Amino acid sequence: MATVTQQINIPVATGENIYNHATMEELIRKQACDIIQPDVCDYGSLQVVQHAAAMAKSRYMMIAPHNPNAGISTAASVHLCTGIENFEILQHMSRDVDWADEILEYDLTVSDGTIEDVDEPGLGVDFNE
Predict the structure, then answer these.
(1) Is 35 helix (H, G, I), strand (E, B) or coil?
(2) Residues 6 or more apart in contact with residue 114 via CB below 8 angstroms
(3) Burial class (CB in 10 A: 0-12, 13-18, 19+), 15
(4) Distance separating alpha carbons of residues 4 and 17, to the nearest angstrom
(5) Rounded to 10 degrees, what is the CA torsion of 23, 60, 65, 17?
């Protein structure tokens, strides 16, 4: 994959199915892509995703977290991305069920391509009971 990445003139993104740090580290060390895409829910924790982003930054690579879920996953991803210098873009899934807004008290509205981060403790998410 590193050979392909170095031979083509378009950015290569991968990593959404990498679930361990050793594999991500190898991908970054070999510069086998231009953009890493760890999944915040599957990769381990927000801290290890931050560590992967720092490793990628040291190789001039960007991060675009994989976020195929909505709700709490998006809240966690938004918080994570606000503190990453080499952040490129966040995948965002629109709500596909009518009751999604009834579960969380968190505004995930996309406006002009952005989601506002909240200034609350933790993820700033409250569950409606």
Answers:
(1) strand
(2) none
(3) buried
(4) 19
(5) -20
In whole angstroms, what is the distance from residue 46 CA to residue 44 CA? 7
> What is the C-alpha to C-alpha distance for residues 123 and 10, in angstroms, rounded to an integer?
34
pTM for the complete prediction?
0.89
What CATH topology corresponds to 2-127? TIM Barrel (3.20.20)
Residues in the chain: 129
Location of structure tokens 């899934």: 93
Q: What is the spatial distance between Cα 98 and Cα 55, in angstroms, rounded to a whole number?
A: 39
Percentage above 90 pLDDT, the chain:
57
Any idea which of 36-40, 74-78, 112-116 has the lowest mean pLDDT?
Answer: 112-116
CB-CB contact of 55 with 46 (8 Å): no
The C-alpha atoms of residue 30 and residue 109 are separated, in whole angstroms, by: 37
Tokens representing 51 are 């560590």
pLDDT range class, residue 23, cuts 50, 70, 90: very high
- Given a contact cutoff of 8 angstroms between Cβ atoms, the answer to whether 22 and 31 are in contact is no
